[in-house]
Structures are given as C-alpha cells and as structure tokens.
Amino acid sequence: MIFRGSLLVWIFGLLAVATGGSGVLGAYAANPRAQPQAHSSRIPAANPTGWNIPVLCYHTFHHEDSSRTPGPLDETYEGLEDMLHYLRENGFRSFLPDGDPLQGKPDPQKVIITFDDGHVSQLRAADLLEEYGMRGIFFVIPSLIEVPRYPHMSSNHLSDLANRGHLIGVHGHRHVSMPVSGPEIIAVWDTVPELMMEIPGITDENLHSLAFPYGHYTPAVTRAMRPRYPLQYTVNPGYWDGSSTLIPRILITQETDREFYFDYLSGALAGPRELSMREPNGSRQSVIHFENPARLDPRALYIRAVSPDDDGRYYDSRSAAPFLSADDRDGHVLVFDVSAYLEAHHPIDHRALSFAVTEKVGEIYRFVSDGYLIWVTRVDAG
C-alpha cells in the first residue's frame, strides 16, 4: 500500500496517465522512491502450471416475455439458467479468485462468473447461481450505490450478497474510461476502497478485484492499480492462466449464438496458447508482433474480436490474412497490422481492438493466443 506522505507524488503520476504522458512509469523514473510497496502475497507471480480458466461477463437481465427493449449486453434469466444448467451438466464449478496465484495441478472445470455495473436485475441472477450451487463476482459502480431512482443495487443488497458467499468488486468510481481520466484513477485508488469498506461484509482482504470501465486500460494504468487491485478484469477474449494480473472475459451479448459460449467453455481443455505478443498488453501500437514457436500458418488463423464491427456484431471470426503475416521464411514471428484490420472491419472512429487469435478446428475456433487490447490512433482520411 502507499503511505499518505507519498500520495502527492503518486497523484501527479496518475494525472500524467490521463493527459497522455508517460504517466506512472514516468513518475517512477523521476522518483524511484515513489514506487508502490505492495504486499507480496497480493501480487500474483508467473505461473507455469498451465491453468485455463474461462471467465463469463454478464450485465443486465430481463425475462423472455418482458416488453422492455433489450440492450446489446442484456441477457434473459432463462438464458442464464440455460448456461448454469450447461455448466452443471458438464462438471464446471464456479470459482472466486482471492488474489493469490493458483497452485497445484490445473483444474479444467473451474469457471469464473462475473457481473458488471451492479444493476438490480442481477439480484435474481444471484438467486439462480445459488440454486445451482455457484457464486459470482459483482462489479459495482460505487458512485451509484445509493443514488435515488437509479436501478443500482444498494449497500444493503451488496452486504447481503457478500454474506451469501459472493464477491464484490470495483467497476471504476463513476464508470469513466480510466486511461483518459486522472480523477477517475485517483478516486478508484483512494476514495473507492473507503466507500466500499463501509459496507458490512466487504473488507480490505476481499476488496482486491477491479473490472476496468469499458475494458479500457494501458500498461501505466495497470501498473498503478496493481498494488491495490492485484486482479484486474478486462473484456479481452480468452482464458485466465491463474496468475496474471489481467484477467480476460467473454461478454454475454444478445445476438451471439449460445454455441459460441459452449465452445469457449470446452476450449478450456485445449491447453496453452501457441502465440504470444511481444508488445505490452494495452499499449498504443499500429503493428504488433507475435512469437510463433509452433510455426502456425497465418493463412489458417482468424481474429476473434469483442470490439463490435461495422455491423455492430460481437465475436465475429474474420480471416487474419492479409493483416497477419510472417516476417521471415521460418515464420517464427508473425506481424499483425492492427490499424489496417480496424480500417477494414470496424467503424472509422474506433480507437481500440480487444481480440484474440484463433484457429479453426472442425467447426470450433480454438484460441491460439491470449486476449489483448491494442490502442490505435485513427485518422479519417475523408
């Protein structure tokens, strides 16, 4: 944790992140003593044991016969129950990480079930989880907890969920993109923990998980938040390795075929991924490079992006060629032109791509890379 005496140095570093400078990394270079002294037990170390844990992300819910017009991230209670039935029938058990790296032999039947925004419709979802013997992580927006006329769970609701064995996490302070807001970063670090720990059942020991608003982060933001929140949830597609700070998640969306989610869950048995990105996750790049020790043929690979495409669709698999190519004859490094891919498949003002590389095996797309977020500056030529 950071002592109050060094908080001003820390705040200046965080504000640099919001203004597009070198951010916290620059503050560290200028004043090495400003580096956070974290409790080592709360920061996961590298884990070579090969865990592949699927992570689901839900938002709001409604009944199938509801007259309400659903949003793109809505799900029906009936759809949630179908998923829970599938999980139980296939031996999956819900799991709540506690901030420590996973040890021992990997268990392919663990699944993490998360809920963003703290909407009151999630209370019924919690009941359904419990009927199936499962528990979830509820990421809430602290500034909305006690706001009248807003459909957000109250502190009493959250306390009850915590006492029933669910985990309560942080989803920003005002749900503002953290890479562009110094005040949001500072509030999440300094104000939010105090607000959250006023709720009975939420303690410093179990307040270790942050879901980035909109899934937005940069290497500087990740590093800044890590001492306070060693578990940071993204919306990058993929599986959690049981030790990394950044945890990928699959968004549950209205128009995505449920078979995609079932294939994703069964894909946890597929083993480690073959491709690894050289550049920092969350960095600003136009082109990135993958180490390709298995010499995968880029012509047989696909890009699976959560970022909605020009038609507003999530998780469409598109051929990686011609945007992904080998940089030499041996093909031990693959080059991905992210900017060109965005120009071809996404709205002109789209600035970021959350994606993973997949390979088609039969009718199933198998993940061959982890999930990544890359920021790209877009310029409208017109």
Any overview of this molecule?
By secondary structure, the protein is of the alpha/beta class. It folds into 3 domains: 33 residues; 229 residues, TIM Barrel (Alpha-Beta Barrel); 100 residues, no CATH class. The protein has 9 helices and 21 strands. Strands 1, 4, 5, 6, 7, 10 and 12 form a 7-stranded mixed sheet that branches. A hairpin with a 2-residue loop joins strand 19 and strand 20. Helix 1 crosses helix 2. The longest helix is centred in the middle third of the chain and has 15 residues. The N terminus is likely disordered.
Largest sheet, if any? Answer: 7 strands, mixed
CATH architecture verdict of the largest domain: Alpha-Beta Barrel
Beta strand count: 21
Strand content is 15-25%
The count of helical stretches stands at 9
- Fourth-tier CATH superfamily name of the largest domain: Glycoside hydrolase/deacetylase
Query: In total, how many domains does the architecture comprise?
Result: 3
Mean pLDDT, to the nearest integer, reads 85
Principal-axis shape equals globular
Task: Give the radius of gyration.
Answer: 20 Å
Helix content bin: 10-25%
Q: What's the CATH class label of the largest domain?
A: Alpha Beta
CATH T-level fold name of the largest domain: TIM Barrel
What structural category arises from helix and sheet content? Answer: alpha/beta
End-to-end C-alpha gap: 49 Å
- SSE string, helices as H and strands as E: HHEEEHEEHEHEHEHEEEEHEEEEEEHEEE
Low-confidence stretches: 1-9, 14-49
